[in-house]
Amino acid sequence: MEIINFAEKPSLVSRYMLELRDNKIQKDPMRFRRNLERIGEIMAYELSKKLAYKDVEVQTPLGPCVCQDIAEQIVLATILRAGLPFHQGFLSYFDHAENAFVSAYRRYKEKGDSFDVLVEYLASPDIEGKTLVLVDPMLATGSSMELAYKAMLNKGNPAHIYVCSVIASRRSVEYVRAHFPEDKTTILLGAVDDEVNSHSYIVPGLGDAGDLAYGEKL
Description:
This protein is of the alpha/beta class. Helices cover 31% and strands 35% of the residues.
């Protein structure tokens, strides 16, 4: 299983990550959403280098020309709600992609910090034999990503899976490695942080991405 960590090499992702983490800059929701989108765009470009392509002949005003086009059918899938701006970054580049949306949320138990992750809603095209790109900005434990993937298997068996997150914990990376198909999964990450606290938030992370993007929820 290939893991691509953008923090291991200098790139523009570093600048956008700085702004996402900075507790002063991140108070601007529009800028926060845009930075998630920008990282999605950069990841989409890097991901595009791994896809299969085909020759397509087009007609220019002066004659025929053979160009290349993506030969794979891409399905972009995101976990609501924090994933929406990140998803849009990928969609800006893969504008012919099909799209899927999963509602997965934490249901905390009466006492303590323990919780169950529940999938409440799924809207997805057929994914049989297609390239599935699962995007969620925060990969804290990996359980939401796994449940979203398992829910989507009801729509078919993808040819390849790309798991994409802005920030992951080391724990979640190992979880994905253990629960996704080894031979057809690639992980793309903006950064990997060492810790997860008792509330299962990544530390230092950046806080609650959904609240920062769209406002606090009850």
